[in-house]
Write a structure and sequence with these properties.
The protein contains 9 helices and 12 strands. By secondary structure, the protein is an alpha/beta fold. The chain has a domain of about 190 residues: 3-Layer(aba) Sandwich (Rossmann fold), CATH 3.40.50.720. The chain is globular, with a radius of gyration of 19 Å. The N and C termini lie far apart (about 40 Å). Bound molecules: NADP nicotinamide-adenine-dinucleotide phosphate.
C-alpha cells in the first residue's frame, strides 16, 4: 500500500484549524497531522525544522497566526515574529522539503478606502500593526518560496473560538439592546467554507501559486450581520446601528474590505457560498 500524502496543519486549535479537522474524514486519501500552538509554536524555528525532518509533509497549511488585532498595537514584536518572520521560515523550510505551502492572510492588508471589491493585485496599505505584520508575512512567504499559495480572507467566524457571531449570540441573550457599527462594509467567511476550499485546492492537484481572495458571497455591514443573527435566532434584543467613531478601538479597521473572488473561482473551480445560509448553518451547529 502506498503512503498517503501528509498534510501538516499548524494552529490547529484555531477557527480554521478546527474546521479542517472536522473535514478530515471527507478527505481520506490524505494523512493529516494537526499541531496546536502547544505542539508547535511556529516562532520556535528549530522546532519547526525538526517537525519537517520527522514528518516530511507534502503539504503545510498554516492556520497559526497572531490574531489579537487590538493587542498587536502594543505587542508589535510578537505579532511580526508570528505573522511575518515565522511565515518566511515556514516558506523556506517548505522549499527545502518540496512541501506545498498554503498560508492564510487578511483583508487588513488594505486601507479600506476602495469603493469596489479588492482584486489580489490592488495596492496594499495596512492601517494596523496586525495588517502590516500579515502583509510582511505574505511578502516573506513569496520571497522564500514563490510556489506558495496565499489566501486572503475576512470576517472569519465559526462554532469554535472567539468571533463576532458568538459574541453577538451571548450579548443578545444577556441584553435588551446592543449597538453595532454600520459603516464598516465587508463579507463574512464561515471558517468551514474556507477550510473546504483549502482542501479542495489541495485535492484538485492543480497547484497555481500566488495570492487569492476568499470570503463568502455577499456584501454587508457588521450591523446587518448582527441583524441576521437576531433574525435567525428570533432574538428579541434590539440592534442599533452606530458609526465606528462611537466604538473606538486601538487598531484601525478598514471601512470597506470586500474581496473580489473571481481569481480563486476561475483557478480552482471553487464557488463562494452565500453568507446568510452559511451563518444559519453555523448557528444551527452551535445550538
Ligand atoms: N479571524 C478573522 O476574522 C480573520 C480574518 C482574516 C484573516 N484571518 C487569518 O486566518 C488565519 C486563521 O485565523 P483564525 O480565525 O482561525 O484565528 P484563530 O482562531 O485566532 O487561530 C489562530 C491559531 O493560531 C495559534 N497561534 C497563535 N500564535 C501561535 C504561535 N506562535 N505558534 C503556533 N500557533 C499559534 C492560536 O493558538 P491558541 O489557540 O493557543 O491561541 C490559534 O489556535 C490567521 O492567519 C488569520 O490571520 C483571520
Amino acid at each position: 500500500m502506498t503512503a498517503r500524502p501528509k498534510i501538516l496543519v499548524t494552529g490547529s486549535n484555531g477557527q480554521v484549524g478546527k474546521e479542517i479537522k472536522q473535514l478530515e474524514s471527507s478527505f481520506p486519501r490524505f494523512e493529516f497531522i494537526f499541531l496546536s500552538r502547544e505542539d508547535l509554536p511556529i516562532h520556535h524555528f528549530e522546532l519547526l525544522r525538526n517537525f519537517f525532518k520527522g514528518f516530511h509533509p507534502q503539504y503545510l497549511i498554516n492556520c497559526a497566526g497572531y490574531t489579537a488585532v487590538d493587542r498587536a498595537e502594543t505587542e508589535k514584536e510578537l505579532a511580526f515574529q508570528v505573522n511575518a518572520e515565522a511565515v518566511g521560515v515556514m516558506a523556506a523550510v517548505c522549499k527545502e522539503y518540496s512541501t506545498r505551502f498554503i498560508h492564510i492572510s487578511t483583508d487588513y492588508v488594505f486601507d479600506g478606502t476602495a469603493t469596489s471589491p479588492y482584486k489580489e493585485d490592488a495596492l496594499t496599505n495596512p492601517q494596523s500593526v496586525y495588517g502590516a505584520s500579515k502583509l510582511q508575512g505574505e511578502q516573506e512567504a513569496l520571497k522564500y518560496n514563490p510556489d506558495t499559495i496565499i489566501i486572503r480572507t475576512a470576517w472569519v467566524y465559526s462554532e469554535f473560538g472567539k468571533n463576532f457571531v458568538k459574541t453577538m449570540l451571548k450579548l443578545m441573550s444577556e441584553r435588551e439592546e446592543i449597538s453595532v457599527v454600520s459603516d464598516q462594509i465587508g463579507s463574512p467567511t464561515y471558517a468551514a467554507n474556507l477550510a473546504e476550499v483549502i482542501l479542495r485546492i489541495i485535492s484538485s492537484s492543480r497547484w497555481k501559486p500566488g495570492i487569492y481572495n476568499y470570503s463568502d458571497e455577499g456584501i454587508i455591514s457588521w450591523y446587518e450581520f448582527a441583524l441576521a443573527i437576531k433574525e435567525i435566532t428570533r432574538s428579541s434584543c434590539r440592534v442599533n446601528p452606530i458609526p465606528s467613531t462611537a466604538y473606538p478601538t486601538p487598531a484601525k479597521r478598514p471601512s470597506y474590505s470586500v474581496l473580489d473572488k473571481t481569481k480563486i473561482q476561475e483557478a480552482f473551480e471553487v464557488s463562494a457560498k452565500d453568507w446568510r445560509s452559511s451563518l444559519a448553518l453555523c448557528i444551527s451547529r452551535l445550538q
